[in-house]
Amino acid sequence: MEPSSPSRKRKYAVEDECNRIGAVQVGPGADQRKAASLIQLPSVESSVVGKAICLLRSRLCNHAQAHILPDAQDNKRKIYELFSETVRNGCNNSILLLGPRGCGKTMSLAQVLNKVIAEVQEEYPERLCFVRLSGLLHADDYSALREIARQLCIEHRLVFSKSASFDDNSQFLTSMLRECALSHKTVVFILDDFDLFAQMSKQKLLYNLLNTMQSKEAQALVIGVSCRLDADQLLEKRVRSRFSHRKILFNPPLADELQKILPELLILSTDSSIVDAKYVEEFNCVTQDIFKSKEMGEILHSIMAVDVSPRHLLNFLFAAVCTIDRNIGLFSLSNFKMAHAILRRQNKLESLRDVSVLELYLLVSMKRLESKEREIYNFNTIFKEYKSLHDSHSTCDLYPQEVCQRAFENLLERQLIMFADGRKSNIGIEFCPVKLLVSSYELEEGLKSSPVCPTILRQWFAHEEFK
Amino acid sequence: MDVKTPEFPCEKIAPVSSPPELFASSVSPKKRNRASDATPDDSVPFGTPSPTKTCRRSPRILEINQIHHLRPRKLGFDDATKDLSIQEREENAEQNVSGLAAQKGTPRLSKKKSNSEGKKSTVLPCTLKSQKSTSSQKVGAVQRRKFLDHVTIDRVRFSKGDDVYIRRTEEDLDEEETEGCLVCGKSGKLVECDNCSRGVHLKCARPPLKKVPEGEWLCSDCESMKKAPNSGSRRTLKTHCTTPRTARELLLASKLWAARIERIWKEVDGSLWFRAGWYVIPEETAVGRQPHNLRRELFRTNQSDDNEFGSIFRKCCVLGPVEFRSSGREGDDVFLCEYEYDCQFETFKRIGDEDELVQAKCDVSEDSVSEDEEEDETDEEGTAKNKKSLQKLPENFKVSSPLSRAANVRSSQMHNLNKVGAKVIPLTARRKAASPFERAKAALRLTATPDSLPCREREMKEISSFVTDAVVAGNGSLGHCLYISGVPGTGKTATVMEVMQKLRKGYEEKNAHPYRFVEINGLRLTSPEYLYTVLHEALTGQHVSWKKALQLLDERFSNPKPSKRTDMRPCILFIDELDLLVTRNQSVLYNVFDWPTRPHSRLFVIAIANTIDLPERLLPRIASRMGLQRVSFSPYSHEQLQKIISTRLVQINAFESQAIEFASRKVAAVSGDARRALELCRRAVEIAEARCAVDSKKQASNSKGSPAKSIFKGNLVGMKDVEAAIKEMFQAPHIKIMGRCTRLAKIFLVSMVYEQHKSGMVETTFEKIAATYTHLCQNNNEIPADWDTLLTVGCSLGACRLILCEAGFRHRIQKLQLNFPIDDISFALKEDREVSWIGKYL
């Protein structure tokens, strides 16, 4: 595998997005939050406990990461300086905000934007206009340019035509930039997932944006946001030369610092809307005790060993707040344990738990085939292995081939196995080579936890030579 | 245009601001559509102001705050226009909306606008002529207007583009004295106060001045007034200031108008008319005078209308900001005009510097025949032009469908863009870079165009000899194509543009042959074939599909006898990013390079690409047509980069000389890219600026007494700043991020390294990594995480591109690979404090 080959890179990029989308949809935090808001919204929180939980929850949701992030202040100052340079001195700039996901790139940018907008508002509101593009949505040059034209039209209250051609739109962009520069207006382009723009063929959009900024006819700022650290290396030579090479790096916070900061996020302040001072005192006391306990330290340690990004940690705390027993109204260690369990779902084990007996037989057959150094196998070979077991030990779990095939398809659907070449080919399903997606350790655990698994299957699994 | 015989009834439109006596005095047989009236008395010699000769700006401008919603249709049109077709009226209205100014040379001069104007001036005579045929027999060539380039009246020469004062009322303006020195009363070279705009001799000023000071200067009175704003002297000063004496003061007190002559013509009856593009003073704009408006500032408006020559009072001089500064404020009738003011939307817009450049592109060789009053040919040219534009009209006037009002559609773009503009001129626009750091930053910007391009003399000579040869010799020239190659940032495009600019200057000085210049960028084209459309549009002004354009161009270039006169001009086609035009069968490139070789094409191509051997990679038939004329731009050496940077920083004391050398050496070692070097230096200046700010703060807090002299050395950009900038801009961030990874991620990376050492294979699968991971953990008393967690960690590392990995759903068979050399990981994690045991596996 060659790291620099472009086709490979592109493939990775797409897969990376798959990962990400998956994460967003299945993320337990997101589910929790949604569920919580659904349940809580209708009933007005009148009790003291309700108020406290509401307060904590809103604190965790409203971008409180700012003080978790170690270099947020510094980075924000840098972005702000860049803005003022462009807005006041009419100087074109381009910059990349890099960092792992969930480390506050977009959040810092949004906070700076608010500040700049508020400042500019004093002079006159149209001094700044924004164009936001996302690499995921505006995948090709045509739609990206059309989106730019649309947003510029909205900002300047112009009529926008959907059917304008690529050429019309690009000409509109050029003349619009010029007109804006002549009337001292700054156009800010915010490109989310910058790396995907850089993977477009020819990089026409980036070239055109950055090339216009070489001339006096523009007063623009291009901000690229990307989690790929090598995003600027993706640029073509002529585009890279036009890019200013400014980068701001967003680091994840250090685990030691976080240990100190996290409890503070769950402390109720005495001067808040909650009147019951006694409750507040008790609540804070209990919370601090929990955080000092050894078990809590272990939970935190394992949480932070996986992911230290503020988003992840806030999700953890949010889940803990949501599981508070309302009758007691105080944290207990079990809340955090539960939250930990929510965040650390063991997907494979869970799905193995409710697999039918026949499916388990098939999985174990595959495992046996693999341990016999058979790299590639299809349904027919699996069925043969399955049958060989029943030939030697007559069990009551012998099913005909059709039924087995149904079970096999079920496994495919659950993605416990997958086609070796990634997709179904034209030949019948029983001839397609497949791969097992469960490790032997996980399968063993699954067999142990499964309520329906017969003893013979466990034995069969444990002893390879068992016939 | 609207010549009228006395038989026609004449009605006056009462202009909002006109005094009532005017109606009685000017019973005129003539009419204007917008400039409301003028006297019939042509025998009065110009220059002697007669009380009846007045002129009025269209009321809309005057009362802009009150009646701006009124359309000129309602106000300005008299009987004559009533006779016109409705279409004509709408067009006039349209014209007003879309910016009447239509100054020659404004890039905003869209095709449409010029057409509508052209149409107006043709339609009017036509309709009038038909009416007139009953009354006057002399219809024909005599009846037409004569368009003139300049007029000499009373030994004062007025030509197109001149700025003039215009009388507002018939009041006599007797005093025309030039203002003397405030102190001694004599005239001479005066320096002007920025507040009260009165002049003082350099030697009379207190304290005496040696040269005209840069920046703001206040006279002693204003200085004292500023210091003590409540003192009694203020009132006297003010009263003195508001008594207008000179024409300039009259103008600034809105007793006079200023306008620019856009067009001059002679009517059938011999009277002279001109089209006036109005200027307004800051007080007449919607926001009024802003504190940072200069004393002598005017705004060009997009309003213009026709006036008689008699209304001109005297010539004045309105300059752009650059000329204004260099003129040293000499003369009393000099004004500054930096912005254009849109009367309808009440917005300001800077007047683009490139006005002339754009114009030069389109009609650099529009043969400017200098006509005198007696010449009749001009007349025909005028009508010819009008006819031409009339033919084009239907294409551009498919108005009134909602689509055509959209801003991002070509046909209606210009009309819409007028809406964009600043409501107020921001204060910062007037701020000049004060500190050496700020000046250095401004000079190092990529947008700042230097006066000359150093270190490219040889290449420039080659290119300019090619271009001059092409322009002068036409088809007899030796070469038809020039191929320029070089890595990005070596000044290819800039050099060509500079050559073309020099050529244009030469043309303006009338010692060059007419030519056309078409610029096309390969990356701006939708598809390579679209080049035909763009080229054809640039040559003829018609927008057609590329197939049609190809056909027309082919005809045009192979036709030995051109029909039109303009075709004689040689055309220089400049193609940037040529490699983008390569198609599968390379037909576009073939055509582009084939046309110049045809005997009568008069086409010359300058092509730019990055690779030096692009012609060799193309088909042989294209390579042979491209010829052997090539210029290659080598990357800049460090001496050259140093020279480039230091020429930009001349007279700015912001850099240590070693720092410049260091930066240029660094960049030259990597790429020799001038853009990169400039950006690096600019960033270094910013870093130094921030450092100095911190230093001075410290200084202030530490010792309040000591002056800043002690840190003088720190006030320059030094080696350290450059190094910091290099680190920031060119160091890959992965080592830093690796050091900040989570515990699991670090162990994951180490297991990958370990696995790679063990197996010798670069690529592994997740299963193997997981096994290694568990093994490592068990050996070092670490509780291993489960596979699902490990998979998440691997995928998040993949998202940052610390490793390359396939999608996570492939689980066990997911392929993984390190994206950086093992050494980087060892460097980042060897001394790790969080997980100390991983060091031994690296």
- Would you state the CATH class of the largest domain in chain B? Mainly Beta
Estimate nothing, just give the exact number of structural domains of chain A.
3
Number of strands of chain A: 7
Task: Give the proportion of residues in helices of chain B.
Answer: 25-40%
Shape, principal axes of CA atoms of chain B: globular
Tally the helices of chain A. Answer: 21
CATH class of the largest domain in chain A: Alpha Beta
Instruction: Please give the order of strands in the largest beta sheet of chain A.
Output: 2-3-4-1-5
Indicate the percent of residues in helices of chain A: 55-70%
Task: Kindly list the characteristics that best describe this protein.
heterodimer; A: 467 residues; alpha/beta; Rossmann fold; Arc Repressor Mutant, subunit A; 3 domains; 5-stranded parallel β-sheet; two-stranded antiparallel ribbon; 21 helices; 8% strand; disordered N terminus; B: 842 residues; SH3 type barrels; Herpes Virus-1; 5 domains; 6-stranded mixed beta barrel; 31 helices; 39% helix; ATP binding (chain B); ATPase_AAA_core (chain B); zinc-finger (chain B)
Describe the structure in your own words.
The complex is a heterodimer of chains A (467) and B (842). Chain A is α/β, with parallel strands linked by helices. Chain A folds into 3 domains: 6-67 and 254-345, no CATH class; 73-249, Rossmann fold, CATH 3.40.50; 349-462, Winged helix-like DNA-binding domain superfamily/Winged helix DNA-binding domain (Arc Repressor Mutant, subunit A). Chain A is 57% helix and 8% strand. Chain A has 21 helices and 7 strands. Chain A has a 5-stranded parallel beta sheet with strand order 2-3-4-1-5, sandwiched between helices. In chain A, strands 6-7 form a two-stranded antiparallel ribbon. In chain B, 39% of the residues lie in helices and 13% in strands. Chain B is globular, with a radius of gyration of 35 Å. In chain B, helix 11 links the parallel strand 10 (312-319) and strand 11 (334-342). In chain B, the strands form 5 sheets. Chain B has a 6-stranded mixed β-barrel with strand order 4-7-8-9-11-10. Mean pLDDT of chain B is 70; it is low at 1-141, 229-242, 355-401 and 705-712. The longest helix of chain B has 29 residues, at 674-702. The relative contact order of chain B is 0.06. Chain B has 5 domains: 21-171 and 252-395, SH3 type barrels; 190-244, Herpes Virus-1; 457-633, 3-Layer(aba) Sandwich (Rossmann fold), CATH 3.40.50.300; 638-730; 734-841, Winged helix-like DNA-binding domain superfamily/Winged helix DNA-binding domain (Arc Repressor Mutant, subunit A). Chain B is α/β, with parallel strands linked by helices and 842 residues long. Chain B has 31 helices and 20 strands. Classes of the chains: A alpha/beta (467), B alpha/beta (842). Chains A and B meet through helix 1, helix 4, helix 7, helix 9 and helix 10 of A and strand 12, helix 14, helix 15, helix 25 and helix 26 of B.
